Amino acid sequence: GYSFKGWEVIADGENNWEAQTDRKATLIGAGRYGNVVLEAVWYELDVKVYVEHYLQYTWGDEYVLLDKYDDYHKADSVINIEEAVAKTAPGAYHFEKAYVNGEDTTSETVKVNADGTTTIKLYYLRDVHTVTVNYVTPDGVEAPAKYVGSFRYDQLYNVNSPAVEGYKPSSVTVSGRIGFEDVEATVTYEPAVYEVTVNYYYENGSLAG
Q1: Buried b (16+ CB within 10 A) or exposed e, 109-135
Q2: Which of 2, 73, 74, 174 has its CA 20 to 30 A from that of 141?
Q3: What is the pTM of this model?
């Protein structure tokens, strides 16, 4: 996580070696200008952080890999997991939990390993939206109870319209795919039109025409 930058002169011309030993400096022997104390200077590197995002399936409790990439942060730095690497998609999904280096964590922060081995796996739950279907019938005809169901983002829904004797629904099914918002639909019922066939017969029983 660090790279050697060079040497920095922190004392010269004076015999103050004892005062500098706590800085792990190196004493260079007397030369033309006397003793010189140098200190090694290192600078921080941006080290790799492996990031993987997992999204809940539309059905069940399993997750599917949504995205993965390499992120970079200063060695030994502390980053806020949600602010630094978590995705946001209002209406679609939201951050649920994180695993850091294979372990479940409730911490909001993680310290970046200097050796570049930090792995962060982030898990997201799909947002849940409501599908409401209202049923409207002519006056005097009892309407079916409205349908209300819950579905996850991007989930398919298919709601069959209840049968009302003598009436035909404007939509046999209400279907679609859940987006970022709740869904509301209305199905109206009109008198059904039936085809009537009339046959005429002669007195002898034979079909007329």
Answers
A1: ebebbbebebebbbbbebbebebebeb
A2: 174
A3: 0.69
